[in-house]
TrEMBL record:
It comes from Kribbella jejuensis. GO terms for molecular function: dolichyl-phosphate beta-glucosyltransferase activity. Residues 11-177 form the Glycosyltransferase 2-like domain. It is found in: Endoplasmic reticulum membrane; Membrane. Pathway: Protein modification; protein glycosylation. Its main location: endoplasmic reticulum. This is dolichyl-phosphate beta-glucosyltransferase. GO terms for cellular component: membrane.
Amino acid sequence: MEIPGHPRVEIVVPVKNEENDLGPNIRRLREFLDTAFPFPAEVCIADNGSTDATYELGTLLASELPGVRVVRLEQSGRGRALKQVWSSSTAEVLAYMDVDLSTNLNALLPLVAPLLAGHSDVAIGTRLAKSSRVVRRPKREFISRSYNLLLRATLSAHFSDAQCGFKAIRADVARELLPLVEDTSWFFDTELLVLAEKAGLRIHEVPVDWIDDLDSRVAIAKTVGEDLRGIARLMRSRVDLEPVRQKYGRPRILDPRTALAARVLRFCAVGVLSTAAYALLYLVLRQGMPAQVANLLALLITAVGNTTLNRRITFGVTGVEGRWRHQLRGLVAFGIGWSLTAASLWLLHTAITAPHQAVEITVLTIANLAATVVRFSLFQTWVFDDDAPTLPAFEPPAVLDQTRSH
């Protein structure tokens, strides 16, 4: 039963210095809601720190168009604006979209319908699905895909597009999650999604038609820096999500082969980073010391970093308990890697008296790749075996399908 005067959906449009686009796009959005959207919906213009006529124009639109209101925040920050408006809303479902309306509005109903039906908790538009139609500059496409791959490697994220400005959340779920979100700017979306996923909430994805806004105000370099700091913070985070998980979470059924593949992918990502760091360290150290000594020191330094990253990222072990035991066991794996690389160097120098450094690097890289397989096996079965989350046991596909049906 609908409560008179209470919209079922509230769409927040965060704006800062958007006096040129605000009028025509809010009118277009309101017309769509009045003619093509089946649920009562309200539009909230959330002005966060504008210094032009954006707020005054928003006030005029609110007085002219039924179902439009405006909120003024003196401090800037998209996350801050969304958090304040969503926290005080009376709607059942809370959504937001960018003022440029880059996303085709026909995706709005598929976005919010699963939330209104209680099927999902959070919904996001994705520009990275195969069925999405996207017009975007190559630089933006590369940054977006790289960012989402980074989220998968560092935070084990499974959603496909964290940055699309087209999202919705059930109001009851938002009341539980919003107090846990720290970021008040562009990283707000990512943090909200990561917390939702870790709490076992169901995230619905909608492929969208999307056209890049050529007048985008996003400062890419600054935003990238903030995102990287946000990722590092979430990797160290100890937010208690158990109350949310108990109230709304659903257990996610994982195919053990998929879980193992994801673990291998994260291990390989850490390995690529470690190999690059090793090669750089070796070249620096080789300038003033023999090859074997440079190899030993470079391996030792990167081994400690590799164990630390794999402990947290690949195997999901957090906290300080067992950290030194893991490092000591990791050094055993390092010893195996060192013996392989040392043997390869010895064989190279036996065959060639004074090999070029490029040849040394090539041989050592191949030896490191061989040692990687051994290290993963040791990490999986011994180094972190006492503390890492256990991968799900294999079950026949029919059993897995029955489990999903429930």
